[in-house]
Amino acid sequence: MTKWLLSIFIFKIPDKKIPNMCSNGPNSLNTYTSPVIGDKRNQGQNTMTYDGLKQRLDAGGIVILDGGMGTELQRRGAPMDPAAWCGPATLHAEKLLTEIHADYIAAGAEVITANTYASSRLMLSLSGYGDQVEEINRRSVEAALRARDAASRGTSVVVAGSLSHMVPMSKGTMTVDPGNLPNDVEMATAYDELARILA
To answer: What residue ranges are annotated as transmembrane (predicted)?
Structure first.
């Protein structure tokens, strides 16, 4: 059996441009500092598209990602599902989800990840949420977009979706059930569905 160790991000590029920190101009990496010390990303002189973001990474530039959404939801008391972990939390703690995204943006994240890490059909079906896969993922992206639009203060923040290697857990144990591991076809089908929803 093939081992799946995969996280894929599908970027939702905002209409606004992303500050360019590749050049030697006022928004370059040479003048970039943390939000705690001072943030020079928002001077608006240089912008880039998705291709520019890729070029920045290819050139060894830095892009600040958010932290783990599922662990932060859990830390802040959102209900966790015994088999699907944080995936269904979007239905039960959407306000908290949006607040966490806003906090990551305030901390300097340039890319925030929608709560889609544990929301594939494989994860959600065993907990009775199989018929809500599209709704849960759509609402997860909408929560991230709301946070971006409300909290970005003029900063271009990119929203990403995550397709993880996570598989359903044994109820109540937070460990993988070896007898319930999906095969390669099931994994590929789940990834394909989630990618289509997030695209």
So the answer is: none
